[in-house]
């Protein structure tokens, strides 16, 4: 019994030596987003190519059936031309570019709206500051200056009559 165990241990030691643990590659595979994205892209490309080759096989089978039609279907098979299908990889790329373009347009629109809001706020604050300055003016004795207050009231009345 002991002899069998010892012989197994020797066989294991001779047969395969254990590779040293590479911490850097382990961390890259485990935590790196870039690595995960690359893996995803490779899987995506493979699946697109697989689907493309499937479509080619289907087209070949369909062409073979058209070449050897049976009975009534021979007339209808000759009338319809075969469809030129776009490569799935290029179709996916075009779709991605369209989405990216739409995203960029949306982003530009948001930036434009934000700039307009900031401009409106700036104008509002300037107007508010001017009104505050006019209302806060005082005479030497500390009384409010009525001239500016009267102007503001006059402007408000004009605006209300114009609307």
Describe this structure in words.
- There is one protein chain.
- With 163 residues, this protein is an all-alpha fold.
- The chain has one domain.
- The chain has helices at residues 2-15, 23-31, 33-67, 73-79, 88-136, 146-162.
- The longest helix has 49 residues, at 88-136.
- It is elongated and about 115 Å long.
- The mean pLDDT is 85.
Could you tell me the mean pLDDT? 85
Structural class of the secondary structure composition? mainly alpha
Overall structural domain count:
1
Number of helices: 6
- Could you name the ranges where pLDDT drops below 50 across 5 or more consecutive residues? none
Summarize the main sheet. Answer: none
Rounded radius of gyration (Å): 39 Å
Number of strands: 0
- Topology order in helix (H) and strand (E) letters: HHHHHH
User: What percentage of the residues does DSSP assign to strands (E)?
Assistant: under 5%
Shape: elongated
Relative helix content:
over 70%
User: How widely separated are the two ends?
Assistant: 107 Å
Question: What's a concise summary of this model?
Answer:
The protein has 163 residues and is mainly α.
Layout: helices, strands, pairs:
Layout: H1 2-15, H2 23-31, H3 33-67, H4 73-79, H5 88-136, H6 146-162
Throw out a few tags for this protein.
mainly alpha; 80% helix; 163 residues; elongated; single chain
